[in-house]
Design brief:
Structural class: mainly beta
Order of helices and strands: EEEEEEEEEEEEEEEEEEEEEEEEEEEEEE
Low-confidence stretches: 1-22, 26-49
Number of helices: 0
Distance between the termini: 31 Å
Strand order of the largest sheet: 3-4-5-6
Number of strands: 30
Strand content: 35-45%
Radius of gyration: 20 Å
């Protein structure tokens, strides 16, 4: 969508969930930090559902999962391959409980599969498994959470397009699934149906993208591997890499988010950098089209605290609790009340107490400090969780 797209106002839609109205509010409606996050343009309707408080959440291509404060796991949206994990392939337009367990601590949604960790450090995956992305030693889809091996030493997990990577308590990374572009980092292009070690030790965090992977080491260096056709590895080339390659010489990387053919990362000085495909302005550097094969800084005037990459858009949170999004906006994934693509950061509504954000296929979700979860953008398969399948360019609360 070009810059001449018409603005869409966010009006009451007759839903039983709260919704931002009148263009999602504006920055000058924001109250002081610590005040009611739903002041100004945020309004509740009579008969609202009970408000849930969420601890963690993650977006896939078209499904969403969240962990509530009590440790229970809930998923909703597309379920064609069992990625919701409720034992069916029925689309869910509202959160569905995934089993009775209340010891879930992390969730990660991929293309059409999901992986999650329990407090026992055990790892479970479910959904599409045609490339072995569930890590179960086979290619059979699973409709319920299924444990990955017998190990109970996993400290984080990241689900990509068709592969998965996880870090254990020894700071080693293991990956599995599709490997046609070297995204598993094991030096081959052989598909793996079980976890295989990646590179050396000393890893602090890993992010699996569509066909590439990036990870940060404890020493603050950044490394990427896999597909590089759009420069998404950031090493100054477009050569695919079957093993981790270091990105520049910096040793102050704090976090990384691998998207679909592009990557963004934060440094410890709160600067944000993006590289790779820029067809929809998802790099946030003021242009549309082309690609960047080295990191470019995004809006140096802001102090960034978190970043999330989707299929064609990016969202990030500043240190003062404001969320900005940019890139493809055809379904309203930027949350600014329009369907206009943006090549620079655009603020999401008036709220200034957001605590976390994640970007999915063509939609976005974010959590406010009070624990409420809000989503916006494409809702074609119920991925916004508000009980219907109508897309919206403004944040609505997940009950």
């Amino acid at each position: 969508m070009n810059q001449n797209s018409a603005r869409i106002g966010c009006l009451f839609l007759g839903l039983i969930v709260p919704i931002l109205i009148f263009g999602c509010g504006s920055a000058d409606e924001a109250g002081p930090a610590g005040t009611d996050p739903l002041s100004g343009a945020y309004e509740y309707q009579a008969g609202d559902l009970a408000v849930s408080t969420w601890s963690k959440f993650s977006l896939g291509l078209g499904h969403t999962c969240g962990i509530k404060k009590n440790g229970s796991l809930w998923c909703w949206g597309n379920n064609s391959n069992g990625e919701i994990g409720d034992g069916s392939t029925i689309q869910r337009n509202a959160p569905a409980a995934i089993g009775p367990d209340t010891n879930w601590v992390q969730i990660s949604g991929g293309g059409a599969h999901t992986c999650a960790r329990k407090s026992t450090k055990s790892l479970f995956c479910w959904g599409l498994n045609t490339n072995g992305q569930l890590g179960l030693g086979n290619t059979a889809d699973k409709k319920v959470p299924t444990q990955v091996g017998a190990a109970a030493s996993w400290s984080s997990v990241s689900s990509g397009g068709f592969h998965t990577c996880a870090k254990n308590t020894q700071n080693l990374i293991y990956c599995w699934g599709l490997n046609g572009d070297g995204q598993l980092g094991d030096g081959t292009t052989i598909r793996r149906k079980s976890p295989v070690g990646t590179g050396t030790s000393g890893w602090a965090a890993v992010s699996a993208g569509y066909l590439h992977t990036c990870a940060k080491k404890i020493n603050g260096t950044l490394w990427c591997w896999g597909d590089n056709s759009n420069g998404e590895l950031g090493d100054g080339t477009t050569a695919h890499r079957k093993v981790p390659v270091r990105i520049g010489s910096a040793k102050n990387w704090a976090a990384v988010a691998a998207g679909q053919y592009f990557t963004c990362a934060l440094k410890t000085n709160h600067t944000l950098w993006c590289w790779g495909n820029n067809g929809n302005g998802q790099l946030g550097i003021g242009s549309f089209g082309g690609y960047a094969n080295v990191p470019f800084q995004v809006d140096a005037s802001k102090a960034w605290a978190a970043v999330a990459t989707g299929s064609y858009h990016t969202c990030a949170k500043t240190t003062d609790g404001v969320i900005y999004c940019w890139g493809f906006n055809g379904a309203g994934a930027l949350g600014d009340g329009t369907i206009t693509d943006r090549n620079l950061p655009a603020r999401v509504g008036p709220a200034n107490n957001w605590s976390a954000v994640d970007a999915g296929g063509m939609y976005t979700c974010a959590k406010i400090k009070d624990g409420t979860l809000w989503c916006w953008g494409s809702n074609s398969v119920g991925q916004l969780g508000n009980g219907v399948a109508t897309s919206t360019p403004c944040p609505i609360m997940v009950p």
